[in-house]
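Hello support,

Our group uses your service weekly, and this is the first time we've seen a run hang past the timeout. The protein is SWIM zinc finger family protein. I'm not sure whether the cause is the sequence or the server load. Input pasted verbatim:
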Amino acid sequence: MTQSAHAYAYLRPSAVLDGADGQQLDLATSGGATPLGAAANPGFFAGFLADPAPAAAALLAVADVAAARYYQPRLRASLDPVVTANGDRLRFESFSGCCGVYARLDVLGAGLDGDEIGHGTTNVDVNNPLREALTRIGPADPLHLAVGPDALEVTTFDGPLVEKKVPLPERWLRGFAETQVVAAGFEPRAELPAAEAVRFLRSLPRGGRAGVGWVVPAGRTLRPTTRPVPGAVCLPGPDRLVALQRVLRHALALRVYGPVAAGEPTASAWEAVLPGMRLTLTLSPDAARGFSGEGGVLDALATGTAERDAELIAVLLAWEPRIEVGDLAAQSGLSPERVRAALTRLGTAGQIGYDTAEAAYFHRQLPYDAGRAEAANPRLRAARALVEAGAVRLEEGGATAVVTVDEHIQRVRTDESGRLSCTCLWWGKYRGGRGPCKHALAVGMVRETAAGAAGTKGAGA
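Update from on-call engineer: The timeout came from a worker crash unrelated to the input. Re-ran successfully.
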C-alpha cells in the first residue's frame, strides 16, 4: 500500500488543565489552512462548552475511530483528528485506519458559549493523557474549550515543539473523498428516541461475530432482518458502531441514513443526537471493504470540464458551513449537474465534506495532500494509459466503443439514460456499484476530447 509520512508540530500537548473558572480543555493545533492562508498553529475558538460531559465523550468517540482498525485490528492506526471551524460551528473528523469508518462530531452554536468561531481546518493533538482526562469530565463543573493558541501565545512561544510523524496511506486519503460522494446519496431512513436507541445499540453483536446485516424500522425501534426487504437499512459490520457506546447516556435520539435498499450491501450513516451536538459514524458497505475503493469520484476526476468548473466553484466556497448546489449554480452560471461534479472533484482535494443531517455540503481544507493521492488512483491511472496508447475506438453512432487491451477487446456501451456498461470482469462483478471500470473511464475521456474538438471546429466554421 502506497503511503507517505505526515508530520504534526504542536506548540504543546493537548490537555485538560485546572483554571480559575474550572477546568479547561486545551486542544493544540498543527499546521492548517485559514482564510488568510496557511498557519502553523491556528486558533479557532475560546469559550465554554454548554454540555461538558457529552462533548468530552463525543470527542473520545472521534478519537476512538482515529486510532482504530476494525478490519485486521492487529495493525495499529493513530492519526490525529481534523477540526474545521465554519464560523457557526466546530467539526471534528476522523477516519479509521482500515478506511471503513468515518466519524464526525458537529458542535453547533447551541453547544458553544464564547468568542466568535473562526474559519479554517487543522489537526488537533489527541494523546493518551488527554484521553484519560476526558473520561473524568462530569456534567457539574464548567469546561472551557480552547481550540488552538491565541495570537499572543503564538508570537511569544519559544519552547520545543511537540512533533509527531505518522504514515499516511493514500487509500486513507481517498476514503475521505469517497465518503462525501456516498453520503450525498443518503436519505433519512429512521429515528429512534433515546431509550430505544440505547436498547438497540446495546443489543448489537460484538467482536466481529456478524457481517453485513439489515435492519428495518418497526414502530419506534429497528428490528433485524436477514435480507434487504423494502424500507430496510444496511448495517454492515454492526460492531463498528462501538464508538457510539461512549455517548449513549447523553443521546437524545438516534438517526439513521442510507440509500434505498438494494440487493447489494450499501454504506449507511448513524447519527447520535446530543445536546447542541451531533456525532455521526458512516460505515462502508463491508468491514473488509474500505471507502477508498468505491470509485464514486472517478467520473469527475476523469473529465477536464469538472477540473475547470472546480477552479471556479472553489472561489465561491468561503468556508461556508452549508453549501447549497442551487445557490452555487446561480452564482457560477453552471448547471446543478456540473456543480455537483465540481464539488466531487474538490472533495478529492479535501475541500468538501457532506453533512447528512442538513443534506448539504460544507467547506473545509484537509491538512493533507489529498489531491495527490487521487491523481494516483490505480483505475484513473490505467484509464489514462489506455487513452495515451490509442486503445479506445468510438464506433459510428457513439453508443458503443471498443477498448483493446493487449489481445483482449472490451466493449463499452451507453444506454438511453447515459449509463455505461462494459464487458470486462470488473463490470460483471460490481455492475457499477464501485464506480466505473478503467475501460469506461477511458471512453469518457476520449468522448470529451472528441466533443471539444467538434465544438472548436464548429465555432471556426
